[in-house]
């Protein structure tokens, strides 16, 4: 932390000076998450809180689709991302044209988009969802069949939780698809009382081994509520570091895979971002108007 301290101080000072806030996703490293983050959470919490802040500038410490979502929620604010190359394998797995083709192939079937997509893709969809509310969003439509894009694994997980027929896309999270059920069975054999909690972006054989499946915020809540002696956290590496703060009595097994996109965000880049007000994230207003509807429909649902 000594090496981080000058950056943390400079960033905190600049935030005050410029009336800026930092939205930090649960996958940020602890010096960002605990050192400079103002609003912390999963994708759903960050999208909701972005809409409420009265700051002039939001620095999005997360990936590009999250910054776009903040721009949709607060078009009048300046949204900065410390590294615009912070992408997401799910967001890059599908284009707006792909969604139009899906609509033509499945006329009348509503399209739910996971929040991990570009604003251009959201603009083609009926409603957004996150890993925290996907089942409820799908069921809120009252339709017998729903397209749930772009994560094939989230779609398969949702299909196990609802009677609605789910049609999916072929996208996958490059971080979560690397976990295997065999790996987790190994942990359980070594310690039968261990609790395994997994993100729904994991493949089905991983989720089959899990005691709990949920969003990053859901995982944190589960650990702090249940305070298990030992937990296997099946998600991105920084989560365990951040949850360990909140659950000091729990020991963590960390079969972690790094998200190379999330890890592009660092304290020096955040400082530069605030200092020079770069890189600003904008969304074409015509696209934004339609994409916003999809996000707002989700946020307004009484879930
Ligand atoms: P959460 O909405 O659960 O935080 O997930 C976002 C994400 O990118 C997970 O890989
Ligand atoms: Fe995208 Fe996966 Fe990284 Fe989340 S962890 S931002 S879904 S690549």
Note the topology.
Layout: H1 5-18, E1 20-25, H2 30-33, E2 39-41, H3 43-52, E3 57-61, H4 64-73, E4 78-80, H5 96-105, E5 111-114, H6 119-122, E6 127-129, H7 134-140, E7 145-149, H8 152-161, E8 165-168, H9 181-190, E9 195-198, H10 204-207, E10 212-213, H11 216-226, E11 230-234, H12 237-246, E12 251-253, H13 267-276, H14 285-300
Parallel strand pairs: 1-2, 1-3, 3-4, 5-6, 5-7, 7-8, 9-10, 9-11, 11-12
Helix pairs in contact: 1-13, 3-4, 4-14
The chain binds 1,3-dihydroxyacetonephosphate and iron/sulfur cluster.
1,3-dihydroxyacetonephosphate binds next to loops.
Question: Can you characterise this structure?
Answer:
With 303 residues, the chain is α/β, with parallel strands linked by helices. The protein folds into three domains: 5-84 and 262-282, NadA-like (Rossmann fold, 3-Layer(aba) Sandwich); 91-174 and 286-300, NadA-like (Rossmann fold, 3-Layer(aba) Sandwich), CATH 3.40.50; 177-253, Rossmann fold, CATH 3.40.50.10800. It has 14 helices and twelve strands. The chain has helices spanning 5-18, 30-33, 43-52, 64-73, 96-105, 119-122, 134-140, 152-161, 181-190, 204-207, 216-226, 237-246, 267-276, 285-300; strands spanning 20-25, 39-41, 57-61, 78-80, 111-114, 127-129, 145-149, 165-168, 195-198, 212-213, 230-234, 251-253. Strands 2-1-3-4 form a four-stranded parallel β-sheet, sandwiched between helices. Strands 6-5-7-8 form a four-stranded parallel β-sheet, sandwiched between helices. Helix 3 (43-52) runs parallel beside helix 4 (64-73) and helix 4 crosses helix 14 (285-300). The longest helix is centred in the C-terminal third of the chain and has 16 residues, at 285-300. It is globular. The relative contact order is 0.17. Residues 26, 42-43, 116, 130-131, 173, 199, 201, 215-216 line the site of 1,3-dihydroxyacetonephosphate.
